[in-house]
């Protein structure tokens, strides 16, 4: 028996995380009940009018478009005559542009980079650090401090004298 597990503690059941739908669930064409009265919004030439969904669907099919329920919670529900695929494409593009705009507007926090050089640095090590510093400058989102450490400890002095 493993110690600590026999104390009568009950494990809580895992709670299922609800995943929000990626796209809003809208009723389209035949998914809208035919006997439902809706506020039908057609093209720019026609005024919005209340009619049964089956009549609105006939208007949309004659125009070669889809009948989409825009506001299901309104009384009566609002249905619009649009090309559903192009509407989804436009919404995805709009949300993508909003995300890009949010990313641009967020304040960029510059990371602080540090380079240390000692008086006994070898040429290859110096070249590698210099190359790294140039890469950081090209990104332009980073700033760094170049430190020249003139303090040497006894061990460094001793190794330079011996070597």
Automatic annotation (TrEMBL):
Keywords: Initiation factor, Protein biosynthesis. Belongs to the IF-3 family. One of its GO terms (molecular function) is translation initiation factor activity. It comes from Erythrolobus madagascarensis. Residues 28-97 form the Translation initiation factor 3 N-terminal domain. One of its GO terms (biological process) is ribosome disassembly. Residues 1-30 are annotated as: Disordered. SUPFAM superfamilies: Translation initiation factor IF3, C-terminal domain, Translation initiation factor IF3, N-terminal domain. It holds the Pfam family IF3_N. This is Translation initiation factor 3 N-terminal domain-containing protein.
